[in-house]
Every structure is written in C-alpha cells, then in structure tokens.
C-alpha cells in the first residue's frame, strides 16, 4: 500500500465519532492548560494518563497528542499577553510577542502565531508521512547493540541540548533508570529495590511517578507565589486580530522557515519543542531582512518560533513511535500510555498497528483545524480564562490527581505515595534539579537493561560489540560528542542557545 | 578570605553521592552472573557508581561561587500532604464527596486568604465534576457518600 492509501485509512480511524470527540477534548484541554501559567502539558498528560486506560489505544494517543500540541497553541497566548510563557516552548515567543502586545498589537500577534502554528503543524504532518515509514524500515535492521546505543543517545541528547546543567540532567536520568528497575526483574525473577515491602514488588506505576513529580510538585512550587494580577487591560476584539497586508507579507517567509526548522529538529531524539523554537528564532536573527528589529515586537519574531515549536511537537512522534526512543519527558509518557495497552513502540509499530500510526497523523490535521477554530473566534474567552485565580485552580488539580491515582488500583497507599513523590519533586526543584529527564530514564531503564543483556549474550560476553559494529560505533561516537560539546562550549564562555539570545 | 561555595549544589551533590552509595550497596547483594549472561545486579551497580561520580562532579563544580539557599514553603507541603492523607483515608470509607471536600479544605489552607463558604462551594462543585467524569462517564465503581458508622 502506498502512503496515500495508508493516510486515507488513518483518516478513517481519526474520523470516527469517538476519535473526533477525544481529539476535541484533547486539544481543548491542551489549549486551556497552555494558556494557564503554572500547569504544563507534562503535568496534565500525567493527570489524564489513568483515564486513557479505559480508551482504545489509538483514541488514547490521539487525545494525549492533542493535549501536547494544543498546549503549544495556548502557550503563545500567555506569552504574548502576559510575558509569561504558559509552557517552556513558548518562552521565545515572549521576546517579540510581549512588545507587540505593549504596542497594542496583541491581536495581530495572536493571529500570526495561530496561523503559524497551523502551517507548522501541516508541514510536520507531511514530513511525518514521508519520513516515518522508511525510518521504520531502517529500524527493523537494528540489533540490540544499536538499540542500546540509540537509547543512550536519546537520553544524553535530552539533557545536553537544553543547555542547562548537564551533570544534574544526567543525575536525573540515572535516578530514573534506577527507579525503572524497581520491582521484579523479568529475566531472573529477582526482586530489586523493594526494601522488603510487597507494595513495591511490581515497581512504581508510571502514572504515580509522573503525577507526583510533575503534577503535585508544580502545585507546591506555585502556591504562595506573588498574586496573579498582571493581565494587561487590553481589549482583544475580533477586529484587532486582523493583520495588515504588510503583516501578512512579512510573516510568510518566517512561518515557512520556522515550520521546516521545527519539523527537522523534532525528528532528532532528545530535542524537544523548546530547542526548535530557539533554533528558529536564532535563524531569523541571521537571515531575516528585519533582523535588527527583532526583539522590539515585529511579526517575524513570533511567526517563526511558533511555527517551529508546533511542527516539532508533532515530528517528535517520529523517533518515539518508530524507534521507541522518546524525545522528551512528554513523549516518554506517550510511550508509557502505549505500553500500558500492551503495544510496544518500535519499528514494527507502523506495520503491526497502522491504524494507530496513521490515525494519529490524520488526527493531527483534524486537531490543528479544531485549534484554528477554537483560537481565532474565541480568543476573548481564552483571555478571560487567564484571570482564573490560582487559589481556585490548584485544589481542583490536586483533587483530580488524588482521584485519578486512586482509581488506578483502588489503593489509598497510592494516593499518599503520590503526595510523597510530589514533595520529592519539589525538593529536586529547590535544589535546582529539573525532574523531567527522570521520566525518560524511568521509561527506558528496563528496555536499556534488556538490550544490554541481549547484546552481551549475542557477543558471548564481549563488550566490544558496542564499538565494532559500524552503526553502533557511530551512535556511541555521537554520544561522546554530545557530552563533550557543552563542556567545550562552556569553556568557550557560553552555550549556543544563550549566544543566540544575547546577540 | 573564606572559600566560596554554592551550598545548594553541595547539598544536591552529596544527596546524589549518598543515593549512589545506597544503590551500589544494594546492587552488590544481587547475583552478578557471568560476562555472557549478566545478572540482575550489574546494570544497577553501574548506575549506582555513575551516580557517585556525577554527585562528586556536582560538589566539585559548586566551588568558587555563592549560592542562594532556596525558600522551602513548609506550609504548602504540610497542607498538601494533609489534603492527600485526608482524601486517602476518606475515599474508601466515607465516599467521594467527603474525600474531595476534605482534600480541598486542607490544601486550600496553604494560601493566606481563607474563607469557609467559597471553599465548601469549590469542594462541592469539584465533587459534582468528578462524579460526572469518573462515576458517570467512565462508569467507575465509586461510592458517592457513605455513613461509616
């Protein structure tokens, strides 16, 4: 079957009433939490993970994906109006979005980002449909040594590309890997790190870890932060959304550039939407005709990063689904959701479950269209939602987490455990450890160990299998390069992302 | 002049080293197997040793600069935990509504402004929402209100 036929089949999956409904639920929730500062897609997807146990796997993935890219749309709204990025990928949008808002051009900025996000999303769909199947074919040829190397690369890339402390990121990953090993070892039957308590014999549930470390800890970090009364008193009317002909002309090229950059960055394992947005902005700094005015509030500065982060949000699924190597913590959760349903992501996914893969791609397009409709005519509603006080919001989030955890196993110990994990996550944040990479390690831990054992079994105990096979050797070299790169850059003074911003 | 160091990173690094020591020690108790068929102790042992190394690296990297001690919001932590424990104890015995109201009540105490009536309204509203999503839409067997005595 050719790609087009498969894509049409995908639309058949995504166009069922159930899929449409959950796609709509996903993008609406995503939009909502993207707009609200203080709660991100990671926390939301962890909160909704238990609900997906009751859905079809393809529907579950469509909904979770909707939350993810929906939050990219919504994130720009808070960035532009409040100078507060609703989620990390939108931080770059603040640079030109907020100045535009102060000039009274918030409406135009919102319009340009919405269209940019839509174009970015559409570009990513094409890239996915063209790139994923051949990549899947290549992936079938990978042996366990290569898998181990790819996972290692994904983990290292996830901490080095962000540009924060690499050491601390690595600590979080190793902790996550250890946490993933907790419970009964499938190969030997040995129970590990259970501290003699039967409660831990099956390990810690993914939903528990995710909700505790991201949901509860985010609440703890946000309680008592200065009162939220920063909304600019600007009226956003439908009329103010309309860009001038000049705006439209000037945002075409940056939107296209951003979409392409985002699509490419998203494919790399370990590089998320934040990196994509930064790279796209840095590119505008180089090539735009108006590069001197960037940062003062021009349309180019919002069009390009917004198209990029939305494109990357979707092409992120390529390494996740074809290799089984998630690009970031959010993708790790998607992988977890599939594993819960007994579906192992990897090269065989496209062949064995075409409905999931192509259904997801088709749902991207439908979801993007829904977001376009949700955004433009209803922008006033989203602006009003920004005014919901946190003191109403957080008890609700907490109740939702508690109930979600309880319904997993009807165990009250789980509820208390999630609270404890929340305190642990809060502590990590206070000590300036970013817990997101931990989740990546947690998901990949058992898989990495299994591939390590298998590789050694095949090679007869010879560790050199990792660098005598050409592909594995290349991947290992890339890992080393990624670790050395930030060290060299920090010796040179500053990281690339910072350099791009300071220019 | 006293030597400068970033106390936050020193603490973080030392905790990392401790966790690494604990993990390595526990791993040593598991079978190591042979090089061909490695046992369940090998991978965690490697990870434990890595943690020790990384932790030491963080401690060493903390020299030569000053660090601000983070503000720990004890009130938020205590109120959140009280809310979760109350929820855990009530959900199986008294049912959904009391558990949610109690959870909202305790967690809401974390913020300085507290008025009973809006908190009760919020608790009951959330109960309705949760009932609609979990009990009605998903059909989960949740007891709404139960008299434990």
What can be said about this structure in brief?
Chain A is built from 24 helices and 2 strands.
Verbal overview:
The complex is a heterodimer of chains A (503) and B (149). With 503 residues, chain A is an all-alpha fold. Chain A has one domain (3-502). In chain A, 74% of the residues lie in helices and 1% in strands. In chain A, β1 and β2 (191-192) form a beta hairpin. In chain A, α4 crosses α5 (91-102), α4 packs antiparallel against α6 (106-140) and α4 runs antiparallel to α15. Chain B has two domains: 3-67; 74-137, no CATH class. Chain B is 64% helix and 0% strand. Chain B has helices spanning 7-28, 42-61, 74-91, 96-108, 116-137. Classes of the chains: A mainly alpha (503), B mainly alpha (149).
Could you report the average pLDDT of chain A, rounded to the nearest whole number?
80
Q: Describe the sheet with the most strands of chain A.
A: 2 strands, antiparallel
Number of helices of chain B: 5
What is the largest interface, and how many residues per chain? A-B, 59 and 67 residues
Number of strands of chain B: 0
List unreliable stretches of 5+ residues of chain B.
none
| Overall form of chain B | flat
Strand content of chain A: under 5%
Counted up, domains of chain B total 2
Quaternary state of this entry equals: heterodimer
Strand content of chain B: under 5%
Q: Determine Rg of chain A (CA atoms, Å).
A: 22 Å
Separation of termini of chain B?
68 Å
Radius of gyration of chain B, taken over Cα atoms and rounded to an integer in Å = 24 Å
Order of helices and strands of chain A: HHHHHHHHEEHHHHHHHHHHHHHHHH
Q: Which structural class fits the helix and strand makeup of chain B?
A: mainly alpha
Give the overall pLDDT of chain B as a whole number.
83
Helix content of chain B: 55-70%
- Broad structural category of chain A: mainly alpha
Looking at this protein, list some descriptive labels.
heterodimer; A: 503 residues; mainly alpha; two-stranded antiparallel sheet; 74% helix; 1% strand; B: 149 residues; 2 domains; 5 helices; 64% helix; 0% strand; flat
């Amino acid at each position: 079957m050719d790609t087009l036929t498969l894509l049409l089949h995908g639309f058949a999956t995504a166009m069922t009433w159930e899929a449409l409904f959950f796609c709509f639920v996903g993008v609406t929730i995503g939009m909502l939490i993207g707009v609200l500062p203080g709660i991100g897609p990671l926390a939301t997807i962890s909160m909704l993970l238990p609900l997906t146990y009751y859905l079809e796997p393809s529907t579950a993935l469509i909904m979770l994906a909707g939350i993810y890219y929906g939050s990219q749309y919504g994130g720009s709204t808070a960035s532009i109006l409040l100078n507060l990025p609703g989620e990390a990928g939108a931080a770059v949008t603040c640079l030109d979005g907020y100045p535009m808002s102060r000039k009274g051009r918030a409406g135009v900025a919102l319009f340009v980002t919405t269209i940019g996000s839509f174009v970015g999303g559409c570009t990513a769909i094409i890239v996915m449909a063209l790139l994923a199947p051949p990549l899947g074919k290549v992936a079938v040829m990978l042996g366990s040594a290569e898998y181990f190397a790819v996972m290692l690369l994904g983990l290292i890339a996830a901490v080095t590309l962000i540009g924060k402390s690499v050491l601390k990121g690595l600590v979080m990953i190793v902790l996550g890997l250890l946490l993933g090993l907790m419970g009964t070892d499938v190969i030997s039957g040995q129970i590990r790190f259970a501290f003699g308590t039967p409660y831990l014999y099956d390990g810690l549930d993914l939903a528990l870890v995710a909700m505790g470390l991201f949901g509860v800890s985010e609440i703890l970090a946000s309680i008592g932060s200065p009162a939220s009364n920063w909304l600019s008193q600007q009226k956003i009317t439908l009329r103010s959304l309309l860009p001038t002909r000049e705006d439209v002309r000037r945002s075409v090229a940056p939107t296209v550039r951003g979409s392409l950059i985002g699509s490419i960055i998203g494919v790399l394992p370990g590089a998320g939407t934040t990196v994509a947005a930064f790279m796209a902005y840095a590119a505008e700094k180089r090539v735009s005709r108006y590069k001197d005015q960037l940062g003062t509030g021009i349309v180019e500065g919002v069009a390009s990063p917004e198209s990029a982060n939305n494109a990357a949000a979707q092409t992120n699924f390529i390494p996740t689904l074809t290799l089984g190597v998630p690009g970031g913590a959010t993708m790790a959760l998607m992988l977890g959701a599939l594993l819960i349903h007994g579906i192992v992501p990897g090269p065989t996914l496209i062949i064995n479950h075409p409905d999931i893969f192509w259904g997801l791609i088709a749902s991207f397009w439908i979801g993007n269209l829904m977001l376009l409709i949700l955004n433009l005519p209803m922008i006033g509603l989203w602006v009003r939602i920004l005014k919901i006080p946190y003191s109403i919001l957080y008890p609700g989030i907490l109740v939702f987490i508690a109930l979600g955890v309880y319904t997993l196993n009807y165990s009250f110990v789980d509820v208390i455990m999630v609270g404890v994990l929340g305190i642990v996550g809060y502590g990590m944040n206070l000590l300036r450890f970013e817990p997101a990479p931990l989740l990546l390690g947690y998901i990949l831990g058992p898989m990495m160990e299994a591939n390590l054992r298998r590789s050694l079994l095949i090679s007869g105990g010879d560790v050199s299998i990792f660098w005598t096979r050409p592909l594995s050797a290349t991947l290992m070299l890339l890992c080393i390069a990624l670790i050395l790169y930030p060290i060299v850059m920090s010796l040179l003074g500053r990281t690339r992302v910072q350099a791009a911003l300071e220019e | 002049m006293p030597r400068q160091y970033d106390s936050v990173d020193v603490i973080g690094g030392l905790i990392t080293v401790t966790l690494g020591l604990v993990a390595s020690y526990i791993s040593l108790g598991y079978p190591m197997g042979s090089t061909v068929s490695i046992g369940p102790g090998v991978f965690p042992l490697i990870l434990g040793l890595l943690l020790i190394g990384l932790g030491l690296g963080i401690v060493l990297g903390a020299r030569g600069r000053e660090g601000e001690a983070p503000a720990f919001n004890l009130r938020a932590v205590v109120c959140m935990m009280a809310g979760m424990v109350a929820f855990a104890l009530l959900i199986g015995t008294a049912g959904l509504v009391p558990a949610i109201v109690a959870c909202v009540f305790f967690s809401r105490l974390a913020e300085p402004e507290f008025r009973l009536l809006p908190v009760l309204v919020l608790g009951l509203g959330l109960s309705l929402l949760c009932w609609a999503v979990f009990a009605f839409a998903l059909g989960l067997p949740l007891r709404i209100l139960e008299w434990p005595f």
